[in-house]
Amino acid sequence: MILTIALSFDARTTSFDLVKVTAMRVLTLIIIGVWLIKLTFAKKIQFIRTPLDLPILVFLIINIAATMTGVHPYMSLVGEYKRYDGLLSTFNYILIYYIAVNFLKEHKYLKRTIVVITITGVLSALVGILQSYGIDLTKWESGVISTFGNPNFIGGYLAMVFFAPLTLFFLIPKNVANSKERRKKIIFMGVCLLSLLLIYKCFSILSHRGGALGLGGGIILFGFLLRRQFLKIKLRLAVVFVVIGMATAIFFLTGQSGLIQKFATTVKIEKKEGKAIPTLEFTSTAETRVYIWQTGLEIIKRHPFLGVGPDALRFVSTQHEKLEFIRTEGGRNCLIDKAHNEIIDIATTRGLLGLGAYLWMIVSLFIFVYRLFPLIKEENKILLSGILAAIVSYLVQNQVGFGIIATSSLFWLLLGMVIPAGRPNHQQTKPVSLPVIPRLAISLSLMILIYYGVLFSIRPYIADVYYKNGLAMKSQGNIDQAMASFEKALEYNPGEEFYYGEVLDAYNIKFNQTQDIVWLDRLIVKGEEAVKCNPLHPYYYNLLSSSYGEKYVRTGNNAWADKSIEASKKALVYKPLFADPYNNIAAIYVRQGRYEEAIKEMEQASALFPDDPNYLRILGELYQVTGKIDKSIELLKKAIVYNPKNADLYGKLGKIYFDQKRYKEAEIQFKKAISLDVNNIFARNNLGTIYINQQKLKEARQEFEAVLKIETENNYAREMLTILGGI
Question: Residue 173 domain-assigned?
Fold first, then answer.
């Protein structure tokens, strides 16, 4: 499980984490199945008790309650696309914890597990290092992402597994019996140091600030817990200190790592006009984090007890997001699906009750360690310190990030490893004896559930293979094949609302290609199906609004206009800072001749994105229609400032000047339009007309002749040339 979750990937899917969550669920179910078989033939059934049992039980119950009362129970159950942090994953993590507690009961098993974690970390690091040299074994070609899909994710993982070879290095016995054992010891120590360096090398390439904070926190704890033991192994400590020190100097100070630069640019000191004292401001992603945290705090105020449901943050974040965040992130389609702070994330998705249970669990763990640490033997102290350091690394980095399947499953595994490492003498539950027949019946029933659980776990994986194939077909222009693949993906995973987006887009492309109203009707039906799947999705309501509006244009039936406006208003309920629905409503009002109302809608859209040239253009045209010419000219000039390469904007501004008989200004604008687009018929016809008014007949003839070369059947140009021929 450790190896597969971290190293698995499949280029046929769109998500690294989907492969990992499938592996985690299937392998956990297999382990549970084997366990059940073992228990079936056991005379007495016993489990190991832990000090975390009660807080974990409470945390699970709160997760179940939060799922049932959340804004999107189904998504909170299975987890959101590419995150998979729903109730099923939480339950899976808890199973991993108890598997570790009950099976890694002996020191040798704990040590072997750390060896496997080391091997996994080294292999992950090697994949990342090779990617930095342009050799990508994953074929994803997305930079240094190892088998995790994101530099931050592999950085966070390596910050945890760093402590595995470090622990093994200090676990090696100080005294050995003979020269053969000494050689083995030296070789093993060398392998541990090499593993440490490979992991550290890959980590340095990533420049992951959250991972660096986690690594630093883990090192501090590791050193603090073993401060007395280090006095007995000064030479070994000195070796590690020198090796890591030199590696830090080479990887971070003289290498290409941007970590130091990243930390340096997290904040900036800026002196504002009129203020004597400079202010400290966040920059880059740090500023974005602050906006996300503010949004999370707003959600906690609205859903304080049980939150919005596991992995359901995205479904309500659009209702509370900050305008600064939208503009910082680049606009319309940015989404907050994680709070990038574990405390805020748990509080928003599981409520303050869930956060309390989670903190209770963590505090109980450290109280357990605090009480038993002085009593256990030295070897177990080293083992326990390494495990705790990795746990602390996870906890620290998640205050500016979030866990993924690979890191979270490792975290819960490590939690389970703490118990046997800190308490070698296990406390077990009271033995339960059952007759053979009930045992067989219970085990058989559970095995059937496991079988269907495996099938359920695999279906989303198969669905995503179809989905990825659909994306490939779509990029190649094979819309029909793309639609078939997307529909197949929904067949295997009908609850995945994310797939609906591509299906709808494919239908929309097909409609635009064919202009066949049948495709518009299919688009509407599928859009209504999408909002039933996710009634909180503002983008689906917006797309439905556009589709209803097109249906209104085609049929003239005002019922479609009303449905379009209603859908836009629903989109604005779930995402108030959304400009497109205002544009949709304005388009309906323009069609109905309600220009003043259309202006009000477009003013709201433009207020959200004042630098959007399209909104400025539409507003300018509306002001022109209502006779507010000066305002219209002002807005079109602004639109040109934001999009100076758009020939149509110059043409529209030129037409306003032309209608106002400001021919010289109009001439300038039409010439600019033609300089950007020599085939701009609108600008050439109008410029030719201006030349006639100015008695520049030769120039006028040249413009109309140029139009006919572009469009031989242009009636206006033909008529004007006929007139010019008679002059």
Answer: yes
Distance CA(483)–CA(472), nearest Å, equals 11
- Which 3-state string (H, E, C) describes 479-493? HHHHHHHHHHHHHHC
Closest alpha carbon to 80 in 21, 23, 26, 29: 21
Average pLDDT of the chain, as a whole number: 89
> Is the residue at 481 inside a domain?
no
**Single-letter code of the amino acid located at 369:** V
Nearest to residue 581, comparing CAs of 552, 560, 602? 602
- Collapse the DSSP code of 432 into the 3-class scheme (helix H, G, I; strand E, B; otherwise coil) and give the result: strand
Q: Look at residue 378 and tell me whether its pLDDT is greater than 90.
A: no
Q: How many residues appear in the chain?
A: 727
pTM for the whole thing? 0.89
SS3 state of residue 413 = helix
Token pair belonging to 364: 């109980």
Whether residue 642 is contained in a domain is answered as no
The answer to whether 52 touches 365, Cβ cutoff 8 Å, is yes
- To which residue do tokens 């963590």 refer? 362
First CA to last CA across the chain, in angstroms? 89
Query: How far apart (Å, rounded) are the C-alpha atoms in residues 336 and 319?
Result: 11
Residue 279 has phi, psi (to 5 degrees) of -110, 150
Number of alpha carbons in the 13 Å side-chain half-sphere of residue 257? 27
- Beta 279-282 vs 267-270: how paired, if at all? antiparallel
Q: How does pLDDT run across 683-703, given as a tens digit for each residue? A: 999 999 999 988 899 999 999
Whole-number pLDDT of residue 270: 58
Structural domains in the chain (count): 1
Domain ranges, residue 213: 51-255+363-422
The answer as to whether 206 is a domain residue is: yes
| Spatial distance between the Cα atoms of 493 and 460, rounded to a whole number of angstroms | 5
